[in-house]
UniProtKB/TrEMBL annotation, chain A:
Membrane topology annotation: Multi-pass membrane protein
Naturally occurring in which organism (per UniProt): Agromyces salentinus
Domain ABC transmembrane type-1 per the UniProt entry, residue ranges: 83-294
Protein name as it appears in the record: ABC transporter permease subunit
Presence of the UniProt keyword Transmembrane in the record: yes
CDD domains per UniProt: TM_PBP2 (cd06261)
Family according to the record: Belongs to the binding-protein-dependent transport system permease family. CysTW subfamily.
UniProtKB/TrEMBL annotation, chain B:
GO MF annotations in UniProt: ATP binding
Database matches in PANTHER family: SPERMIDINE/PUTRESCINE IMPORT ATP-BINDING PROTEIN POTA, SPERMIDINE_PUTRESCINE IMPORT ATP-BINDING PROTEIN POTA
Database matches in SMART domains: AAA
Organism whose genome encodes this protein: Agromyces salentinus
Source species, domain of life: Bacteria
Name listed for the protein in its UniProt record: ABC transporter ATP-binding protein
Length: 304, 399
């Protein structure tokens, strides 16, 4: 009933855009062609690969098209720890990145409003890491946090770390790397939301007997939900599929392998393409479901 | 000390030696003000005069540089906004966009853990006739409706002191009248203390028991609207609160009860009791509706001041009255409002006329027009109000 008032107003305008829809379709063609070629085709190919069966009497790495659903069961039973680990690490990294980025974004977007120069400077600092490849930066962290590094030897000297303790190769190092690498993706959407936050709402909350903590919980936080949702998605999705930080060549170790590493190994080392494809599909589907539930639960559809 | 209970009645508000400096300028200089409990007090002034800053100081949204704020005799200068028994109707409404109307209205009650917040919120919404929209979001409401919600959200808390920051600015004339009436009714029913900040002199005069005219961070004059209008003390008040014809000259003579000012050859008599100054150069004035036009020099008019002859520059007819602009050599143009009790205009453009008014209608000011230069004439309240309303209407249409 609430929308009854709109329907009458909208009805006549519906005719006009229809005439233009052909032009719109024409303009959309390059985009559609691009998506079909570079998104849909690989996706279908991946789906088909995931159902392939080994070629009878064939070599390693030779497969034929089939409907071998068993692949999914096999990878799930073999790699379920990696699947759980991937989402666990990604979740931890997202939470840490949020805890780190929110105060930072709040400072840049709200507190630093009076000093635009400081605001710009801090934004540049947030974006600055992008000037260097994340591979190099992650390698740099590996150096900084290696067993022989100044940081670790100092911590050991201060007895804050045991003599045999490592940092690289531990889950902590992988989560640290993921958090570090995705902080800008968390900070920037948070900043854009907080920068537009109307402080008069906070004043109104305070005027209506809410203490600063309640104002934050009831006003600031809900109003920054679009930024939180965007930032957590931009962090969680790539972090769940990341295979750099957890790789043995970077911050990971044998016990920290994530789905990305397993997929990489299956594709490039074990040449078990169906398993790699099945894992990829599982990863994608799991992320889709989780994100769907998350967006629905956070109730930000109308704020996004 | 979160306020957990409704205020029984309004509280006194006392501002003692308040000063507020911002980097680069002083918004309020040495303000002393007492607003008795249960009164409807209006702070009237042009934008930038410090009235909104005063309100924000009382609400606790700004801290005074100096001075003390007392509400109901209790010093609240050091307490924060959420601890003060004060609610504000914000100029921008500031309704929470992520909450429904009913959640907005119940917000303050829930924070204070007052029983049955939703029931009371519905009651407040019924008062402003918006209960049927309780489940909507603020964005789905018109400007006027949002304003009424903002009002409901404040009064539902029964604060000892209700602050109104230009609360009727965005409303069209009819709704404005309706809300003015509603505010007044609520005030009388509930007996709260209202502090109303506005640049609209008409709104201030129709609603408030006491009006304080503020200019440049200080109160120029304070009193009942009728008194302020009848006997302004400064050029600023004379021009901001309604319009005035002003004449400046040296005092040329005095009796026990009156002084005579020689303004460019015209002798104008003002009762001593109605003049702030009795010697030196004095600016005297008279309201346009008190001035009468004459086609011939009024011979022998005891008890009246006569200024003229001059020529009619402009005649504008507005139904109940006609406004004449008369150019009299040596004086500023004289404005005359004449009730249209006869038939047709009594003077046309270019006619030679004389103006006169009863001596007891004149007033003598404490300052002169030179001091008033700080406030340009085209900044009259009506033009500010019209400008603001246009801006807001444009803004609403855009959004």
């Amino acid at each position: 009933m609430a929308f009854a008032a709109f329907s009458t107003a909208e009805a006549p305008t519906e005719q006009a855009p229809r005439k233009k829809s052909r032009i719109a379709l024409f303009l959309l063609l390059p985009g559609i062609a691009y998506l079909v070629l570079f998104f849909l085709t690989p996706l279908v190919s991946l789906l088909l690969t995931s159902l392939q069966a080994p070629l009878e009497f064939g070599d390693i790495g030779q497969y034929q098209y089939a409907f071998n659903w068993q692949n999914y069961v096999d990878v799930m039973t073999t790699y379920w720890p990696h699947i759980v680990r991937s989402f666990g690490y990604a979740l931890a990294a997202t939470v840490f990145a949020l805890l780190f980025s929110y105060p930072l974004a709040y400072f840049i977007g709200v507190k630093a409003r009076r000093w635009p120069l400081l605001q710009s400077l801090m934004l540049v600092l947030v974006i600055a890491p992008f000037f260097i490849s994340f591979l190099l930066r992650t390698l740099a962290w590996k150096q900084i946090l290696s067993d022989e590094s100044f940081v670790i030897t100092s911590l050991k000297a201060l007895s804050l770390l045991g003599p045999d303790a490592h940092f690289t190769g531990t889950p902590f190092a992988v989560i640290f790397g993921l958090t570090y690498n995705f902080i800008p993706f968390m900070t920037l959407p948070l900043y854009t939301t907080l920068e537009r936050l109307d402080l008069r709402y906070l004043e109104a909350g305070s005027d209506l007997y809410a203490n600063p903590f309640t104002v934050f919980r009831k006003v600031t936080l809900p109003l920054s939900m679009p930024g939180i949702v965007a930032g957590t998605l931009l962090t969680f999705i790539p972090a769940a599929g990341d295979y750099v930080n957890a790789s043995r060549d970077f911050l990971g170790g044998p016990d920290t392998q994530m789905m990305g590493n397993v997929i990489e190994a299956n594709f490039l080392v074990l040449l078990n393409y169906p398993a790699a494809a099945a894992l990829s599909i599982i990863l994608m589907a799991a992320i889709l479901v989780l994100v769907g539930i998350y967006v629905k639960r956070s109730g930000t559809e109308d704020l996004l | 000390m979160a306020v957990r209970e409704f205020a029984e009645r309004g509280a006194d508000l006392e501002l003692v030696g308040i000063q507020k400096r911002f980097p680069g300028f002083t918004a309020i200089q040495d303000l002393d003000l007492t607003i008795p409990a249960g009164s409807f007090f209006a702070l009237l002034g042009p934008s930038g005069c410090g009235k909104t800053t005063t309100l924000r100081l009382v609400a606790g949204l700004e801290e005074p540089t100096q001075g003390r704020i007392l509400i109901g005799g209790k010093d609240v200068t050091a307490t924060r906004s959420h601890e003060r028994p004060v609610n504000t109707v914000f100029q921008s409404y500031a309704l929470f966009p992520h909450m429904s109307i009913i959640e907005n209205v119940a917000f303050g009650l829930k924070r204070r853990r007052i029983g049955d917040p939703l029931g009371k919120a519905h009651e407040a919404l019924r008062l402003v006739e918006l209960d049927h929209l309780a489940q909507r979001r603020p964005q789905q409401l018109s400007g006027g409706q949002q304003q009424r919600v903002a009002l409901a959200r404040a009064i539902v808390n029964r604060p000892a002191l209700l602050l109104l920051d230009e609360p009727l600015g965005a409303l069209d004339l009819k709704l404005r009248r309706q809300m003015q009436l509603e505010l007044k009714t609520i005030q009388e029913e509930v007996g709260l203390t209202f502090l109303h900040v506005t640049h609209d002199q008409e709104e201030a005069m129709t609603m408030a028991d006491t009006v304080a005219v503020m200019n440049k961070g200080a109160i120029e004059q304070m009193g009942a609207p009728e008194v302020l209008y009848d006997l302004p003390r400064t050029v600023f008040v004379a021009n901001f609160l309604g319009q005035s014809n002003l004449f400046t000259g040296a005092v040329a003579g005095a009796t026990d009860t009156a002084i005579t000012v020689d303004a460019a050859g015209s002798r104008i008599v003002v009762p001593k009791s109605r003049s702030a100054r009795h010697n030196g150069t004095v600016t005297v004035g008279v309201r346009p509706e008190k001035v009468t036009l004459h086609a011939e020099a009024p011979a022998d008019a005891p008890g009246r001041n006569v200024v003229g002859p001059g020529r009619v520059l402009d005649v504008s007819f507005s139904g109940v009255s006609t406004q004449y602009l008369v150019d009299i050599p040596g004086h500023d143009t004289v404005l005359v409002f004449a009730q249209n009790t006869g038939i047709g205009p009594s003077a046309g453009v270019g006619d030679e006329v004389w103006t006169s008014w009863l001596i007891e209608h004149g007033f003598g000011l404490a300052d002169g027009p030179s001091d008033a230069e700080r406030f340009p004439a085209d900044d009259s309240t009506t033009s500010i109000a019209a400008q603001r309303r246009d801006d807001l209407v444009a803004e609403l249409e855009e959004g």
